[in-house]
């Protein structure tokens, strides 16, 4: 991802993804925070995204326009991954594609579950306690976390 992505500094207040438009990239948040708002909900914030999270992944999966606006809340840094290059790698390397789509599925499932719990009025800590991942998946998450740390250090110059 480092070889094909572009590190981008995103100033506070900049819109990274605009609702109703398609994006040419998906983004991995390296540093900072982003707010996700939805016009149909009166511009209400529906999520906050931070380091280690991916944004633009839903539109990447379904090839539709963005369903929300993603805006930097703080000065942030992202790794922009061009859609065309990611699709090319997915077509070329089936093992990578399987891991990539599995990670996206887990991420999206977690977000749906957390959204449901929040709508029911439960606290986020309670929701986290309810959705414990199996140990095999946790091992893979640990490895992904270590890879993310190495990538972040390399991209951020540390």
| Strands side by side in the biggest sheet | 1-8-3-6
Q: What's the name of the CATH homologous superfamily?
A: Jelly Rolls
- Sketch the major β-sheet: 4 strands, antiparallel
How would you sum up the global shape?
globular
* Name of the CATH architecture: Sandwich
Can you give the helix content as a percent range? 40-55%
Helical/strand content category:
alpha+beta
How many domain modules? Answer: 1
Short overview:
This protein has 158 residues and is of the alpha+beta class. Helices cover 45% and strands 26% of the residues. It has a single domain (6-156), classed as Jelly Rolls.
Description:
The protein has helices at 57-62, 83-92, 94-119, 124-130, 135-156, and strands at 6-10, 15-17, 25-31, 33-38, 44-50, 54-55, 69-72, 76-82. The chain is α+β, with helices and mostly antiparallel strands and 158 residues long. It has one domain: Jelly Rolls. The strands form two sheets. The chain has a four-stranded antiparallel beta sheet with strand order 1-8-3-6. Strand 4 (33-38) and strand 5 form a beta hairpin. Helix 2 packs across helix 3 (94-119). The radius of gyration is 16 Å and the shape is globular. The two termini are 18 Å apart. The model has no long low-confidence stretch (mean pLDDT 82).
